[in-house]
Amino acid sequence: MLPGTLDQVPTPPRGAWYTHLYVQVLAAIVAGVALGHFAPATGEALKPLGDAFIKLVKMVIAPVIFLTIVTGIAGLRDLASVGRIAGKAFAYFLFFSTLALVVGLVVANTVRPGAGLNIDPASLDPGKVADYADKAHESTITGFLTGIIPDTFPSALTDGNVLQVLFVSILFGIALALVGQRGEKVFALFEDLSMVMFKVVAIVMKAAPVGAFGAMAFTIGKYGLASLSSLAQLVATFYITSLLFVLVVLGLMARIAGFSILRLIAYLKAELLLVLGTSSSESALPALIEKLERAGCPKTVVGLVVPTGYSFNLDGTNIYMTLAALFIAQACNVELSLGEQLALLGVAMLSSKGAAGVTGAGFITLAATLSIVPSVPVAGMALILGVDRFMSECRSLTNFIGNAVAAVVVSWWEGRLDREQFEAALAGKLPPVTELPVGEVEA
Q1: 357-387 pLDDT, tens digit each
Q2: Cα separation, 380 vs 331, whole angstroms
Q3: How far is CA 264 from CA 86, 239, 401, 408, 435, in A?
Q4: If you write DSSP's letter for every residue of 97-117 in order, what string do you get?
């Protein structure tokens, strides 16, 4: 071997701290914040890095969901249990989504973060939020329901609508299960394709630190940390409320199901840092599916609960909607009666589903929610436009954790959670995917 060849380059020891994805993403976030703060123009120019990584992830979301659900349903073969799992998932979503809205409402009335601002509604510029208001009017429940059905079967996998992917995946999985033995070859092919797709996900995730660096540098460079100071009480109230919701409400649910919310968060730390860095829970969706399956949650439950939860179980978004709506009312000195607040809650529950999957959904649903109470100016959304980007990170983190907990709880509720494997995963005792023998798939 010649001196200086690649064979002599030392390789990092297995398990070295700097080889872990969460360490690399955390370092990238810190570097992005520093660059955005000290060189705002350069930070803003790095937006394409974050956008490109999110596009990479969205590229693999549809096939991962499709293959996971199809193989899960077809492998289960008991179609009655599929309906039972879906029923339990929606019952869970309805309860905790409503609870999140109520929590936001109670906190807003208790803390009153907008009180004392004394904003004159006539001084607000409605043009700043016109696009969001227009999209809110376009997002109807009827349009949402018909939008679940794709124009063609293949278009569901190319248009980027998660609910359309879910719809065709369930149909195909049920059909494959009904075919019986004649579908065994297709089932085996899809199982092999699943392994390949998750390897693609692993390759894509290598670029996560670059994406997090670009996205965070852009956020700080464009909006600046100084923009937080004027609305610090609202931002702090939202973050603390979301943290308490995760640790107390979801933590209690986790305790009932027999696991620790803190250990689950530690298990998903790399994905959570990625969500923080990119301000998008979708960026970690494929990795969440893979990690929950490795942790002993059945493929059918994960395939049904996680993608559906990304549209129907938005705990962070729901807390934000009622809290932000009352903040705007308080800032404009508009006192809402109990009836008006309950009307806001009801509309928020519906509008959060109608705008699911839409870019800027949190702001769009807020516009739809405010439209039910004419006394609260929709233009008041301009008050929080500058800090919405910072709050979107908290929304995404809370939504992500909520869906992870939902998948584990429904698995436990079904009596199909592999407790031994789950405990091993949370304790960090599972072997890395790269250490598995070729062709071996985790149970």
Answers
A1: 444 566 667 776 776 677 777 777 777 776 7
A2: 9
A3: 23, 20, 9, 10, 22
A4: HHHHHHHHHHHHHHH-TTTT-
Annotated domain spans of the chain? 19-432
CATH 3.30.420.270 corresponds to the domain 19-432? no
Dihedral angle of Cα 163, 212, 260, 320, to the nearest 10 degrees: -60
**Residue with tokens 């004159």, as numbered in its chain:** 120
Q: What's CA 283's distance to the chain center, in Å?
A: 8
On whether the CB atoms of residues 60 and 378 are closer than 8 A, the answer is no
- Tens of pLDDT, residue by residue over 213-263, are 888 888 888 877 776 666 788 889 999 999 999 999 999 999 999 999 999
Query: What totals of helices (H) and strands (E) does the chain contain, helices first?
Result: 20, 0
> In sequence order, what DSSP letters do the residues of 334-392 get, joined into one string?
-PPPHHHHHHHHHHHHHHHHHTTT-TTHHHHHHHHHHTT-TTS-GGGGGGTHHHHHHHH
